[in-house]
């Protein structure tokens, strides 16, 4: 224990045991539900374990199998990228546009509430709602298109369309969240800055580019990276909406490893798969973070 | 009040109240996939059951999630006492020691009461692991109203005939989307809608998916290619497509499907009064030497149950005839339009209706061959379903797709056999 | 990292007048404004469409679904379906479980985030930087990575749920509310968010209180805590929404413990029983029942959640 900081000193104080008391729950949690599981997971990935029996050490065999022999694994990695990339590339800018539109709109509170509705709905319900709406033959959308003489796409039975559908539904679901983050950032921008810019004769477009965007850049970085991490690891929507189908077209790696673990009881291989995915996510997030920081300079 | 409850809960949380483990005097749990409504006759039996203080209760686990739920529950040490096991799940459960070996009294009961073919379906490594309950088989089910409209008075008996009839029945709307489908596959989450008809066609070709000792898979054979080619041809030649679903048959928009008998009650609900006239069950359309698939469920006891003896007693009670009437399980299955191989029950009940009779005949004529009880069957059949669906959609040629599949399946067999 | 000024001032009358002058503009701009509202309205329609589809679908009866082709608008709306939802499905239990679990987790997350965030923002001690790095870094670890190991950690807790001292033999903490809550007691993001808020509060307040002889815990409780109420409201909303809708973990640990299943899990697992056509309307009615309460609660409480509170966490 360090002595208490002298009174009147600038900056945070030592506070004796207090910080450790305040931090105790976090530290215990960090050990039991972060460090321990990670270690366990790494160990498991070197084993072959059907959990009704006992684990056997197989070294790097699980990684070798996944990386060199399992085509399905690579396909799921690709699907994961498509899903996460589509989600971020469309979802984040869309949320920004919405936030921007609302910030100057009449009745912005109501707009925000409507666009936030999906966030309040559980993901299983969302998956099923859209299953009904997107049904090839009897869904609302294809019925509507048929009424004006158009053949709607096979939203959930065509592999390409199914991926597009889950990405769009994910964007629909999550737009409200990022919208709120951007709204918050926009509200925090002092109105006087805008007014100053306007008085200086800056047009709307220039104001947007040179005043608004730089100020909300941190929020943009935050939203992009968190959305990317979410997208790479998200599978509950897909599980309930397409179950990974049709023909594996929407099977993402997280879902693939989950099934491997709890349906096929291959805990070792599933842990290895999850770790590989995590390493990919980690590296890409760091790269993104760097890139977004660079541009900020 | 809310506060009290919250406090009690928080307390429970703190000491980690072991909900499942205080179950010493709790009723025996019977876990089946039938809904409460479907299982009503069985529920009545369970409610009334009281053998020297041992009572029973029902747990529904949906069919789609049954194996996963059982295994996950087992991992967590929370299991029901009595299972109703689909035979293809059994190998994995036996291999992992989930199932208890039946006592002699139960084994005798099974061999006395059930036909030999059905006892085979629940036998793994020479042991019958429980009491057979529901038997299902696949046949061609036709909506004769649609077939007659297209000019056909009876269902086809060959695959070429099926293609002809299906093509004649299919109608499309202005956008080219199928309105009435001549034939449809069932779009089930387990993939059974593709895999089960494939087995029926493969068996009709006189082939089997595995060598007898499961040392190798026979999925890259010409017979397998023929069977899959027949299915894929329907989609490739535009006779049907994958956006139609055999589960829409009750709504009247499907001409034919290769389907199990258990859909009867729903077809009845959809057709109403015209059911007797319009729904016809007939042979698998594969010529005179047609064969089909049968599979069985059986009731087994969890090897970790703390009251195995009592559990087996309950299993026996539920499947034994009551005072000349059918058993509890028999009564429930009859209500579902399901088949049973319980000879006492079949003797005690009325003759089957016109829908069910062809299924029973297929079983009696030994045309219905068991689904293979192979290790990791659920995983393997998931892979099969994906391969078949790819071939149907035209993403892969049947031949090369089956070759790849055969290799992957043999990888799995290699782990176990 | 800066935090928004808690008293973002409204614009002065003068500046407002200027704005009006400058923006009272051209025809083109007005047309753009109309277009904006048209687009926003279309978007709003898209947000509501699936919900409307659900309410209509719930009212279809067998006559509608067994028609060929099936009817979209029910010929005779079957209002009785909502009574069936409660009669045939354990809605009450799922609902109660959802409330209990979400309530416990949210309370725990707020408590741990506030205390830890405060310690990290307001105290100087050895290891602070390392712990903060942990908090930031741990946010990068997606939850799917933890499903398998935490499942077995809870399964093998010694002396719980019939386990022996080596963690064998019983079911551990699986099948208890603890299994549903424990893995979520701390939210790294929440800790991070609260730290940012506390950083914005000047240290002078603490120093003054110390001079008055208040101890550390009292300072925290009576002085600092009230100042971050808006942040607590924000975090509460985030936690509540997330855990009310959480599905994968809860399903994994309650598959064989139906008495602990929550709304999303119950609805998901029952969908296997909903394959029959005439059950679809029952499924849609069940979805409606699972969705409505949250929306009602949110709309009732939404004044508590001010958008600008979200800002400080992400700067």
What does this structure look like?
- The complex is a heterotrimer of chains A (297), B (417) and C (315).
- Chain A has one domain (71-296): MetI-like fold (Orthogonal Bundle).
- Helices cover 71% and strands 1% of the residues of chain A.
- Chain A is built from twelve helices and two strands.
- Chain A has a two-stranded antiparallel sheet.
- Chain A is globular, with a radius of gyration of 24 Å.
- Chain B is an alpha/beta fold.
- Chain B folds into two domains: 28-136 and 295-370, 3-Layer(aba) Sandwich (D-Maltodextrin-Binding Protein, domain 2), CATH 3.40.190.10; 137-293 and 375-416, D-Maltodextrin-Binding Protein, domain 2.
- In chain B, the strands form two sheets. In chain B, strands 1, 2, 3, 6, 7, 8, 9, 10, 11, 12 and 13 form an eleven-stranded mixed β-sheet that branches.
- In chain B, α10 (222-236) crosses α17 (377-393).
- The longest helix of chain B is centred in the C-terminal third of the chain and has 19 residues, at 398-416.
- The termini of chain B are far apart.
- Chain C has 315 residues and is mainly α.
- Helix content of chain C is 65%, strand content 0%.
- Chain C contains 16 helices and no strands.
- Chain C has helices at residues 13-23, 27-58, 62-65, 81-88, 91-122, 128-138, 144-155, 177-181, 188-199, 204-211, 216-227, 229-245, 248-254, 263-270, 280-301, 309-313.
- The radius of gyration of chain C is 26 Å and the shape is flat.
- The chains are: A mainly alpha (297), B alpha/beta (417), C mainly alpha (315).
- Chains in contact: A-B, A-C, B-C.
- At the A-C interface, α1, α3, α4, α5 and α7 of A face α1, α2, α5, α6 and α7 of C.
Helix count, DSSP H or I runs of 4 or more residues of chain A: 12
Name of the level-1 CATH class of the largest domain in chain B: Alpha Beta
Q: Main β-sheet of chain B: number of strands, strand sense, barrel status?
A: 11 strands, mixed
What is the CATH C-level name of chain A?
Mainly Alpha
Q: CATH topology of the largest domain in chain B, what is it called?
A: D-Maltodextrin-Binding Protein, domain 2
Q: Supply the CATH architecture of chain A.
A: Orthogonal Bundle
Mean pLDDT of chain B: 86
Q: How many helical stretches of chain B?
A: 18
Helix content of chain A: over 70%
CATH architecture of the largest domain in chain B: 3-Layer(aba) Sandwich
Assign an overall shape of chain A: globular
Low-confidence stretches of chain B: 1-23
CATH superfamily of the largest domain in chain B: Periplasmic binding protein-like II
**Structure summary, number of beta strands of chain B:** 13
């Amino acid at each position: 224990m360090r002595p208490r900081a002298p009174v009147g000193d600038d900056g945070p104080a030592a506070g004796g045991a207090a910080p450790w008391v305040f931090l105790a729950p976090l530290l215990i949690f960090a050990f039991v539900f972060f460090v321990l599981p990670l270690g366990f997971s790494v160990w498991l990935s070197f084993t072959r374990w059907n959990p009704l029996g006992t684990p056997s050490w197989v070294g790097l065999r699980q990684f070798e199998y996944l990386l060199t022999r399992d085509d399905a694994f690579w396909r799921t990695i690709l699907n994961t990228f498509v899903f996460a990339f589509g989600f971020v590339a469309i979802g984040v800018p869309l949320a920004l546009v919405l936030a921007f539109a609302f910030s100057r709109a009449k009745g912005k509170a109501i707009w925000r509430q409507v666009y936030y509705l999906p966030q309040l709905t559980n993901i299983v319900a969302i998956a099923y709602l859209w299953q009904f709406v997107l049904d090839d033959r009897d869904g609302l959308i294809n019925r509507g298109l048929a009424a004006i003489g158009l053949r709607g796409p096979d939203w959930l039975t065509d592999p390409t369309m199914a991926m597009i559908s889950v990405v769009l539904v994910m964007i629909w679901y999550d737009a409200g969240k990022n919208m709120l983050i951007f709204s918050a950032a926009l509200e925090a921008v002092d109105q006087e800055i805008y007014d100053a810019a306007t008085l200086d004769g800056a047009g709307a477009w220039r104001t947007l580019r040179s005043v608004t965007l730089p100020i909300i850049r941190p929020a943009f970085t935050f939203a992009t990276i968190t959305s990317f991490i979410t997208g790479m690891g998200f599978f509950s929507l897909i599980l309930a909406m397409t179950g990974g189908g049709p023909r594996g077209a929407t099977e993402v790696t997280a879902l693939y490893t989950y099934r491997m673990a709890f349906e096929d009881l291959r805990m070792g291989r599933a842990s290895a798969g999850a770790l590989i995915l995590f390493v990919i996510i980690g590296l890409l997030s760091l790269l993104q973070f760097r890139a977004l920081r660079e541009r900020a300079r | 009040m809310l506060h009290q409850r919250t406090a009690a809960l928080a307390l429970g949380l703190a000491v980690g109240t072991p909900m499942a483990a205080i179950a010493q005097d709790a009723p025996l749990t019977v876990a089946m996939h039938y809904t409460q409504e479907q299982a009503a006759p069985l529920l009545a039996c369970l409610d009334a059951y009281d053998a020297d203080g041992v009572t029973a209760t029902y747990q529904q686990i949906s069919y789609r999630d049954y194996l996963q739920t059982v295994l996950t529950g087992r991992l967590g040490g929370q299991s029901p006492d009595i299972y109703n096991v689909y035979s293809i799940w059994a190998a994995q459960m036996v291999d992992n020691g989930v199932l208890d070996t039946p006592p002699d009294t139960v084994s005798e009961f099974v061999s006395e009461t059930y036909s030999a073919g059905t006892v085979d379906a629940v036998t793994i490594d020479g042991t019958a692991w429980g009491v057979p309950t529901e038997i299902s088989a696949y046949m061609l089910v036709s909506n004769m109203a649609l077939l007659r409209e297209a000019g056909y008075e009876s269902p086809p008996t060959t695959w070429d005939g099926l293609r002809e009839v299906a093509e004649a029945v299919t109608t499309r709307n202005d956008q080219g989307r199928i309105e009435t489908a001549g034939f449809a596959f069932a779009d089930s989450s387990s993939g059974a809608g593709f895999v089960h008809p494939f087995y029926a066609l493969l068996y009709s070709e006189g082939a089997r998916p595995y060598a007898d000792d499961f040392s190798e898979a026979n999925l890259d054979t010409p017979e397998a290619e023929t069977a899959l080619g027949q299915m894929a041809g329907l989609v490739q030649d535009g006779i049907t497509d994958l956006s139609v679903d055999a589960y829409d048959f009750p709504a009247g928009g499907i001409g034919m499907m290769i389907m199990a008998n258990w859909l009867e009650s729903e077809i009845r609900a959809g057709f109403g009064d015209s059911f007797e006239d319009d729904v016809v069950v007939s042979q698998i359309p594969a010529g005179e030497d047609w064969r089909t698939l049968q599979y069985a469920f059986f009731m087994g006891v969890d090897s970790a149950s703390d009251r195995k003896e009592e559990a087996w007693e309950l299993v026996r009670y539920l499947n034994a005839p009551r005072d000349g009437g059918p058993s509890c399980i028999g009564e429930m299955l009859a209500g579902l339009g399901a088949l049973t191989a319980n000879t006492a029950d079949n003797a005690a009940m009325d003759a089957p209706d016109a829908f069910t009779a062809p299924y029973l005949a297929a079983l009696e004529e030994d045309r219905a061959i068991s689904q293979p009880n192979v290790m990791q069957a659920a995983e393997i059949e998931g892979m099969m379903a994906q391969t078949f669906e790819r071939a149907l959609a035209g993403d892969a040629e049947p031949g090369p797709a089956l070759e790849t599949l055969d290799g992957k399946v043999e990888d799995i067999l290699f782990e176990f056999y | 990292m800066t935090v928004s000024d808690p008293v973002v001032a409204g614009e002065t009358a003068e500046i407002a007048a200027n704005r009006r002058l400058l923006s009272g503009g051209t025809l083109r701009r007005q047309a753009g404004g109309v277009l904006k509202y048209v687009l926003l309205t279309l978007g709003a329609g898209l947000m509501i469409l699936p919900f409307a589809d659900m309410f209509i679908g719930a009212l279809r009866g067998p006559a509608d679904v067994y028609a060929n082709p099936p009817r979209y608008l029910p010929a005779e709306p079957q209002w009785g379906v909502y009574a069936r939802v409660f009669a045939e499905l354990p809605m009450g239990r799922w609902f109660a479980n959802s409330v209990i679990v979400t309530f416990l987790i949210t309370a725990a997350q707020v408590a741990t985030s506030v205390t830890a965030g405060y310690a990290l923002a307001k105290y100087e001690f050895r290891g602070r930087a390392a712990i903060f790095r942990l908090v930031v870094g741990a946010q990068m670890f997606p939850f799917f990575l933890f499903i398998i190991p935490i499942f077995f950690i809870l399964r093998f807790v010694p002396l719980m749920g019939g386990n022996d001292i080596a963690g064998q033999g019983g079911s551990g903490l699986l099948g208890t509310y603890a299994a549903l809550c424990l893995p979520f007691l701390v939210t790294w993001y929440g800790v991070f968010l609260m730290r940012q808020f506390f950083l914005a509060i000047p240290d002078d307040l603490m120093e003054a209180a110390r001079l008055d002889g208040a101890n550390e815990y009292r300072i925290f409780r009576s002085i600092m805590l009230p100042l971050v109420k808006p942040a607590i409201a924000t975090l509460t909303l985030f936690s509540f929404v997330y855990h009310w809708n959480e599905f994968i973990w809860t399903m994994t640990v309650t598959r064989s413990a139906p008495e602990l299943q929550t709304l999303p899990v119950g609805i998901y697992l029952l969908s296997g029983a909903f394959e029959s056509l005439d059950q679809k309307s029952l499924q849609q009615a069940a979805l409606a029942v699972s969705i409505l309460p949250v929306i009602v609660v949110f709309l009732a409480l939404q004044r508590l959640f001010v958008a600008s509170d979200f800002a400080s966490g992400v700067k």
